[in-house]
Amino acid sequence: MTTTSSSATPVATAPIPAGLTRAQLHELYYFMRLTRSLEEKLVNLYRQTKVIGGLFRSLGQEADAVGSAYALDRGRGDVMSPLTRNLGSMLVQGATPLEVLRQYLAKAESPTHGREQNIHFNDLERGFLGQISHLGDMVAVMAGVTLSFKLRREPRVGLVYVGDGATSTGAFHEGLNFAAVQRVPLVVIGENNGYAYSTPLRKQTAVNSLVEKAAGYGVPGVLADGNDVLAVYQVTRQAVDRARAGGGVTLIEVLTYRRKGHAEHDNQSYVSQEELAAWEARDPIDRYVRQLTESGWASPADLTALDARATGEIEAALERCEHESLPDPATALSDVLAQPPSAELEWYRRL
């Protein structure tokens, strides 16, 4: 890499991947860094007992969430449905650290007004359909959403995430089979992160790779390195373009690793330290930093500025919401039931 100073724009020594600009390469880094830094902040809040409920990390999986969502076109109305470990995809689609922090802290001003946590929230205008906890079910839901695109002749594409364990469910089978038969414009991202909670892949399916399942539905299957954000972006972009052109469904397996337990309460005792160390050496952010700097696509000063931007946004969001009110208990059934029952408070609650 050749530069005139530490803050100068580096001279690229490798061609920028097709379809991307230097600014977009920097944005990919920013979203991965924002994802990790936001989750690290949430860990601190969790240990201070300020997080209501569980905390689900995506450590080691930031590249697959960010790279895949970045291949969508929000301007055309593309939509996606994430899983709990796809915070990065939500941020790409326009969710904010403030919304995420309010969700985890169960604040009254959160998108769900304290009725749900983490990234279980919805905004179709920004292109994300909130997930539910029933794993695999969103494949069928997104098959229906994208069928509506096809019937209306809208040039829109849907993307849905599913974990390795959920590919063994009936919901996944029914949803993917329907989507394949109807040739809907859907991209299915199968995240093979090694474990379905504590069950390794080899103990819950007979195939060696999730991509093998594509043949059973008559759709293309593509394997991508889930710890390489550019590789994930490129294969997803190809699948999105194919879907938009009427080519139907693609199943993409992103091979990655969950470097934390199922949630913060899970100590991951079923995983060896050697296995964790091997995958830590393949950290997606560290790898991308090397790609950016060695290829001349970014300078250390560029990355430092992006780090500072992410940290500043998170700190500003937390300062704004940390001391906000929790929901009024009397509103617990509002927006849950069409006609919430009401009753006068017991005498001791009126004191």
Description:
The chain is α/β, with parallel strands linked by helices and 351 residues long. Helix content is 38%, strand content 9%. Strands 1-2-3-7-6 form a five-stranded parallel beta sheet, sandwiched between helices. Helix 1 (22-47) packs antiparallel against helix 9, helix 1 (22-47) crosses helix 10 (300-321) and helix 5 packs parallel to helix 6. The chain is globular and about 70 Å long.
What would the keywords be for this entry?
single chain; 351 residues; alpha/beta; five-stranded parallel beta sheet; two-stranded antiparallel sheet; globular
Shape: globular
Helix content: 25-40%
The overall pLDDT average reads: 93
Order of helices and strands: HHEHHHEHEEEEHEHHH
How many extended strands? 7
Strand content: 5-15%
Structural class: alpha/beta
Tally of contiguous helical segments: 10
Q: Can you summarize the main beta sheet?
A: 5 strands, parallel
Radius of gyration: 21 Å
Placed side by side, the strands forming the largest sheet appear as: 1-2-3-7-6
Q: Catalogue the unreliable spans.
A: 1-7
Tell me the distance between the termini: 71 Å
Instruction: Say what oligomer this is.
Output: single chain
